[in-house]
């Protein structure tokens, strides 16, 4: 789950990281909460992926407020 301040190209930045890491996106949902956009990605992550490194990469994207792993 991502909390972001929306901007043009944000989704493309996230999907680029997923593509580079060979992460398959199964579904995407989004909704506005106050001033923030909350985006949920259901993904299939290869076993060899370092989750902490992935979350760190995603948090470094401009306008990303928080990234939380669930499930």
Describe how the helices and strands are arranged.
Layout: E1 2-4, H1 10-20, E2 24-33, E3 36-44, H2 51-59, E4 64-67
Antiparallel strand pairs: 1-3, 1-4, 2-3
What does this entry look like structurally?
This protein is an alpha+beta fold and 71 residues long. The protein contains two helices and four strands, in the order E-H-E-E-H-E. It has helices at 10-20, 51-59, and strands at residues 2-4, 24-33, 36-44, 64-67. It has a four-stranded antiparallel sheet. Strand 2 and strand 3 (36-44) form a beta hairpin. The longest helix has 11 residues, at 10-20. The radius of gyration is 12 Å and the shape is globular.
Give me a quick take on this structure.
With 71 residues, this protein is α+β, with helices and mostly antiparallel strands. The protein has helices spanning 10-20, 51-59, and strands at residues 2-4, 24-33, 36-44, 64-67.
- As a whole number of angstroms, the C-alpha radius of gyration is 12 Å
Sheet-strand content, in percent, reads 35-45%
Number of helices: 2
Quickly give the structural class. Answer: alpha+beta
The main sheet orders its strands as 2-3-1-4
Helix content bin: 25-40%
Mean pLDDT: 93
Largest pleated sheet = 4 strands, antiparallel
Number-wise, the strands total 4
* Terminal CA distance: 11 Å
- Overall 3D shape: globular
Enumerate the spans where pLDDT stays under 50 for 5 or more consecutive residues. Answer: none
Q: SSE string, helix = H, strand = E?
A: EHEEHE
């Amino acid at each position: 789950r991502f909390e972001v301040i929306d901007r043009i190209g944000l989704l493309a930045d996230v999907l680029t990281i997923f593509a580079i890491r060979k992460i398959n996106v199964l579904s995407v949902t989004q909704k506005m909460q106050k001033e923030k956009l909350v985006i949920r990605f259901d993904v299939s992550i290869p076993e060899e992926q370092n989750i902490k490194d992935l979350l760190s990469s995603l948090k470094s994207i401009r306008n990303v407020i928080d990234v939380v792993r669930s499930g």
